[in-house]
Structure prediction request, 96 residues.
Amino acid sequence: MATTAVATVALQQSSARADMVPPEHAIVVCQSASFYANYNSASGPTGFIRTLSYGDKVGHTRGAHPVYNGWAATFDYGPNDWGYVRYECIGGYGSW
Prediction:
């Protein structure tokens, strides 16, 4: 009789960290954008941190920092922390 073990794993994506490629300077281009601590592949963004506003200085390096289902690993230069924001709300690369 063969037994099969089934493991259920909750995959949670961790935020991008400083040991990755440095973030490229950008700004928030949406009127407001929710900023979350993590992205969970099963349930989406988790751990709301704060709302970012148009023009806030952020960082994201296209092609190097992860984007999960439209949520991009982003560095907020205000308080200097990592989180996730909607990819379409990041723009103005190199503008500052």
Summary: The radius of gyration is 16 Å. Residues 1-16 have pLDDT under 50 and may be disordered.
